[in-house]
What we know:
Glutaredoxin, globular, single chain, electron transport, 85 residues
Amino acid sequence: MSNVTIYTKAYCPFCVQAATLLMSKGVKFQEYRIDVQPELRPEMIEKAGGRTTVPQIFINEQHIGGCDDLVALDAAGKLDPLLTQ
Protein backbone atom coordinates (compact mmCIF):
# COMPACT_ATOMS: atom_id res chain seq x y z
CA MET A 1 0.00 0.00 0.00
CA SER A 2 1.15 3.52 -0.76
CA ASN A 3 2.30 6.16 1.68
CA VAL A 4 -0.46 8.81 1.72
CA THR A 5 -0.22 12.17 3.44
CA ILE A 6 -2.95 14.79 3.62
CA TYR A 7 -2.73 18.31 5.08
CA THR A 8 -6.10 19.49 6.41
CA LYS A 9 -7.99 21.94 8.62
CA ALA A 10 -11.00 21.30 10.81
CA TYR A 11 -14.39 22.19 9.36
CA CYS A 12 -13.09 22.01 5.79
CA PRO A 13 -15.69 20.16 3.71
CA PHE A 14 -13.15 19.42 0.98
CA CYS A 15 -10.80 17.88 3.54
CA VAL A 16 -13.62 15.69 4.82
CA GLN A 17 -14.54 14.65 1.27
CA ALA A 18 -10.95 13.74 0.39
CA ALA A 19 -10.44 11.79 3.62
CA THR A 20 -13.77 10.00 3.13
CA LEU A 21 -12.78 8.94 -0.39
CA LEU A 22 -9.46 7.58 0.84
CA MET A 23 -11.11 5.76 3.75
CA SER A 24 -13.71 4.23 1.40
CA LYS A 25 -10.80 2.64 -0.44
CA GLY A 26 -9.35 1.28 2.79
CA VAL A 27 -6.35 3.60 2.60
CA LYS A 28 -4.53 4.49 5.78
CA PHE A 29 -3.09 7.97 5.63
CA GLN A 30 -1.12 10.39 7.74
CA GLU A 31 -3.14 13.54 8.40
CA TYR A 32 -1.51 16.80 9.40
CA ARG A 33 -3.92 19.43 10.70
CA ILE A 34 -2.33 22.77 9.94
CA ASP A 35 -4.91 24.56 12.10
CA VAL A 36 -3.64 22.58 15.10
CA GLN A 37 0.02 22.59 14.01
CA PRO A 38 0.44 25.89 12.12
CA GLU A 39 4.20 25.36 12.01
CA LEU A 40 3.53 22.70 9.32
CA ARG A 41 1.88 25.21 6.96
CA PRO A 42 5.18 26.44 5.38
CA GLU A 43 6.23 22.81 4.84
CA MET A 44 2.91 22.07 3.12
CA ILE A 45 3.18 25.14 0.89
CA GLU A 46 6.72 24.27 -0.14
CA LYS A 47 5.89 20.62 -0.87
CA ALA A 48 2.74 21.67 -2.76
CA GLY A 49 4.60 24.02 -5.08
CA GLY A 50 3.17 27.16 -3.52
CA ARG A 51 -0.42 26.05 -3.05
CA THR A 52 -1.89 27.39 0.17
CA THR A 53 -5.34 25.80 0.27
CA VAL A 54 -6.32 22.56 1.97
CA PRO A 55 -6.44 19.72 1.54
CA GLN A 56 -3.08 19.08 -0.05
CA ILE A 57 -2.63 15.39 -0.81
CA PHE A 58 0.53 13.42 -1.45
CA ILE A 59 0.87 9.78 -2.51
CA ASN A 60 4.38 8.35 -2.19
CA GLU A 61 5.71 11.92 -1.89
CA GLN A 62 4.07 12.81 -5.25
CA HIS A 63 1.87 15.89 -5.00
CA ILE A 64 -1.65 14.97 -6.11
CA GLY A 65 -3.25 18.34 -5.38
CA GLY A 66 -6.49 19.05 -3.61
CA CYS A 67 -9.83 17.32 -3.25
CA ASP A 68 -10.98 18.03 -6.81
CA ASP A 69 -7.73 16.59 -8.15
CA LEU A 70 -8.14 13.45 -6.05
CA VAL A 71 -11.75 12.97 -7.17
CA ALA A 72 -10.76 13.51 -10.82
CA LEU A 73 -8.01 10.89 -10.53
CA ASP A 74 -10.52 8.45 -9.09
CA ALA A 75 -13.09 9.17 -11.81
CA ALA A 76 -10.44 8.59 -14.47
CA GLY A 77 -9.49 5.25 -12.92
CA LYS A 78 -5.98 6.49 -12.10
CA LEU A 79 -6.21 6.66 -8.30
CA ASP A 80 -6.32 2.95 -7.48
CA PRO A 81 -3.05 2.19 -9.33
CA LEU A 82 -1.32 4.98 -7.38
CA LEU A 83 -2.63 3.60 -4.11
CA THR A 84 -1.31 0.09 -4.77
CA GLN A 85 2.27 1.06 -5.61
